[in-house]
Amino acid sequence: MPADAVSIEPLPGKKKYLTPEQELEVVAGYLAGSTARELGAKFGVHRNTVGRILKKHGVAMRMQGLAAGQVDEAARLYEAGWSLARIGDRLKVDAETVRSRLRERGVRMRDPNERI
Questions:
Q1: How many CB atoms lie within 10 A of CB 18?
Q2: What single-letter DSSP state applies at residue 74?
Q3: In this predicted model, what pLDDT tens digit does every residue of 56-91 receive, in sequence order?
Q4: pLDDT category of residue 3 using cuts at 50, 70 and 90
Q5: For residue 15, what are the CA distances in angstroms to 19, 33, 61?
Q6: Distance separating alpha carbons of residues 27 and 82, to the nearest angstrom
Q7: What is the pLDDT of residue 69?
Q8: Would you report the helix, strand and coil content of the chain in percent, each value rounded to 5?
Q9: Predicted confidence band at 24 (pLDDT cuts at 50, 70, 90)?
Q10: What b-and-e string marks burial along 70-105, b requiring 16 or more CB atoms within 10 Å of the CB?
Q11: What does DSSP assign to residue 3?
Q12: Rounded to two decimals, what is the model's pTM?
């Protein structure tokens, strides 16, 4: 493995390494406005790996999570029957982030098998 490559595990037991050139592509993509999730999908790595690459290259991450207005929107959509994953896709955050913010807001979570 190159000394400056970031190691990741895309599949159990298999490591993938991004080359220094790919890392620079990740940085350029992020600076151009792509999200860590989008870049992770493009390069076949986890979004946390993208974060480590950005940190390694001295790139500050943009605001993470949801702003108050986005939590309001997420609550409205969830109460209208949207899934956490669908809301996360719309707001460009992970479904777990949506769930956490909604629980903090006091929104009752549906049973996973519950349908609206």
A1: 21
A2: H
A3: 999 998 867 788 899 999 999 999 999 999 999 999
A4: low
A5: 13, 27, 25
A6: 33
A7: 93
A8: 55, 10, 40
A9: very high
A10: bbeebbebbeeebebeebbeebebbeebbbebbeee
A11: T
A12: 0.53
